[in-house]
Specification:
α12 links the parallel β12 and β13. The longest helix is centred in the first third of the chain and has 20 residues. This protein is α+β, with helices and mostly antiparallel strands. The protein folds into three domains: 243 residues, BirA Bifunctional Protein, domain 2 (2-Layer Sandwich), CATH 3.30.930.10; 49 residues, no CATH class; 91 residues, Rossmann fold, CATH 3.40.50.800. It has 15 helices and 16 strands.
Amino acid sequence: MAIKYQRPRGMQDLLPEDQKIWSFITESFVDICKQAGGERISTPALESTELFTRAVGEGTEVVSKEMYSFEDRSGNSLTLKPESTAGVVRAYIENGMASLPKPISLYYIESHFRYERPQLGRYRQHTQLGFEVFGDSTVTSDVHVIALGSRLLNKLGLKHKVLINSIGTPEDRQKYIEVLREYFERHKDKLPEINQLQLDKNPLRILDTKDDSVKQLVEEAPHIIDYLGKESSERFQAILEMLEGCGIEYELNTRLVRGLDYYNDIVFEYVASREGASFSVGGGGRYDGLVELMGGPKTPAVGFGLGVDRIKIELEEMNFSPELKNPDVFVVAIGKDAALDAEVVLERLLNEGISAQSNFSKKSMGDQLSIAAKLGVKHAVIIGDREAQQKEAIIKDMASGNQQVDKQNKLIENIKKSLGY
């Protein structure tokens, strides 16, 4: 029979097997963020379209080609967020967070939407982990943020390195943009239409091209690192020295500019490596002017984003399987009268924080105990019609096979003692 409905192109279903790795990634991220003093923030899936054209940059591929934008019934132009930093900054300003003690560390786990050509690790809806620090302009905050992302990848078991570059202050960058514009003007006839538009608005975007026909021109273009001022050069050198001191493997990439207009000074990318292949899993940088650009007070900021989908693919390629905690107790019901008591016992166990499962659709004790054995539980609680009438239960130690009868009203307390709760 033909399938009537299918998910939209470029979207994915995350089935229970996928969720095991997914949860391992996101829970590891939350743990690391909390250790570093981060607090979680969530922003709407929909934002004003102008928020992204203003913050991300009108000449970027994200804004010009990839956004899902529409007009609502009130005539407002809204966009499914293609990235989260702009929304986090909007929330930071709108909710008065600028008045809070600095620095402020925020993290998020959000869905993003981009109309891209679907391919492995690149979906039209993807999930990103992000960490942002507001109110700290020091190089130590740059290293702190880079190190946090690296620490997560280490915890997940991903071998990786950090590609890193400096795009300087706005003044440094403006000088370089003029040099870059002159270079690409000499080769304008070789540029696709999108790059010609970028040449007028912001030729830095051409360096971020995905077009193979333009990549050779990019390779021969001037390097931004040769146009950094003294302040930017010294800052960049200090960051590199700190990264070495922290034992973080990095590689200088003078073509790295990132695909968003709001960055200044440090930009970086996390690249996972496996058997000679490399795979970008995310990146970030400093954006000291964005809060002010969006109408807030002048606020230094730095952050990164990591793609859960891409990390998941890397872990799957490594045949990684997260260790899942087995339930401690399996409740067995045998007989019609026993089902009610067994369900009550199951709910009481769960309410007490004890990991417990059941499968009352299986009618025989053998089938139910077989499931309990496969799950690796420590105890089976068995209730038949006779036990239900006596308000008792049989507790079976699954390792030794020993059994004892207990009153149902004492059952929870005794199991907790046995499990060391």
